[in-house]
Write a structure and sequence with these properties.
3 strands, 98 residues, 1 helix, alpha+beta, 3-stranded antiparallel sheet, elongated
Length: 98
């Protein structure tokens, strides 16, 4: 196995979710017996500076975020395979004095 990562593109950790919701106005259509909810709203959730963070994003941004998250997962899988191989070849598994 080669210890080389092949990658081209942008990456992003986290996930994208979507939701529809009610507002706080008493007489809004979103409060009716058959509610007409507001949205669809898209949100990215991930880690920034060690803290879980959620950002509201546009539908176009949601598409791009999902692509970048897929790229991140592919890159992480490659790195995990390299690490797995490195652990098989770790100093404590070989004759270090050779």
């Amino acid at each position: 196995m080669k210890n080389k990562i092949e990658f081209n593109g942008y990456i992003l950790n986290g996930s994208v979710s979507s939701a529809r919701s009610q507002c706080g106005k008493k007489n809004c259509a979103c409060k009716a017996k058959k509610p007409k909810l507001h949205g669809t709203y898209y949100r990215w959730t991930g880690i920034i500076a060690g803290k879980r963070t959620t950002k509201t994003i546009t539908p176009e941004m949601a598409i791009e975020c999902r692509t970048r998250i897929k790229n991140y997962k592919k890159l992480k899988k490659q790195l995990d395979l390299i690490l797995e191989q490195a652990l098989k070849e770790a100093l404590w598994t070989t004759d270090f004095n050779r």
